[in-house]
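batch job 7 of whatever, protein = Antitoxin
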Amino acid sequence: MYQVTSDYAQNNFDEILDRASHDPEGVAIVQANKSFVLINQEELEALIETIELLKNPTLLTDIQQARQEYSRGEVLTADQIFG
């Protein structure tokens, strides 16, 4: 992961934003021995979604089952679902 000081980040903010928008790991900004990570919103949303899936094993099983059904052509039409 690319790492910079808070002073560097402050003075080169456009560069840091550009790097964070293209690097899935984001950019670590270090200040007073603490590290903060700047990532783009899509990466954050993907991480949150992954965490939610990992917290709910039933949901993950349901998704896997639905994918298997879909691959076998077992699908419902909108009329079948909504009447």
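notes: Residues 2-39 form one domain.
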